Amino acid sequence: MRERKVRFGVSIPQKLTEKLNRIAEAMQLDRSRIVSEAISDYVRSHDHYIVEHECRGVLIVVDASKHIDLLATLSNYSDIVRFYNHANLGDVCVDMILVAGKSSKITQLHKILEKTYKLTVRYVPIACKTT
């Protein structure tokens, strides 16, 4: 049985719409399907922030130009940071942070990296256990 669909209006920048149209054409997909898949991916990687639970995952941090003392920040989260690795890919730095602990603490670290330091951060949940 197919899931019921709901229409809603979304305003996005013109340049993003143009890119979306080119991708849809290249992939021979309609825009609704692409947007639906993008929203599904986003919700899947963020829905665990809604309910407090034990979680394990990877924070991937991409920083092309900013040089912050990431280790000092991570030391404040030593109770959830299990592993840290840094790599340079030309002029781009990529940091991988394995975390395990309360979802609220992981959310807090994620927000600090994104909002305070203005970094590009992607969280990939690996295993979550609802309490």
In a few lines, what is going on in this structure?
38% of the residues lie in helices and 32% in strands. The chain is of the alpha+beta class and 131 residues long. It folds into two domains: 14-46, no CATH class; 52-130, Alpha-Beta Plaits, CATH 3.30.70.1150.
Report what the structure shows:
- This protein has 131 residues and is of the alpha+beta class.
- The protein folds into 2 domains: 14-46, no CATH class; 52-130, Alpha-Beta Plaits.
- Helix content is 38%, strand content 32%.
- It has 4 helices and 4 strands, in the order ααβαββαβ.
- The chain has helices spanning 14-27, 31-46, 70-75, 103-116, and strands spanning 53-63, 81-89, 92-102, 120-130.
- It has a 4-stranded antiparallel β-sheet with strand order 2-3-1-4, with helices on one face.
- A hairpin with a 2-residue loop joins strand 2 (81-89) and strand 3 (92-102).
- The longest helix is centred in the first third of the chain and has 16 residues, at 31-46.
- The chain is globular, with a radius of gyration of 18 Å.
Q: What is the CATH architecture assignment of the largest domain?
A: 2-Layer Sandwich
- Uncertain segments are none
Order of helices and strands: HHEHEEHE
Count of separate DSSP helical elements = 4
Rg measurement, Å: 18 Å
From the spread of the alpha carbons, the general shape counts as globular
Name of the CATH class of the largest domain: Alpha Beta
Instruction: Name the average pLDDT.
Output: 88
CATH superfamily membership of the largest domain: ACT-like. Chain A, domain 2
Quaternary organisation: single chain
Q: What percentage of amino acids are in beta strands?
A: 25-35%
Number of domains: 2
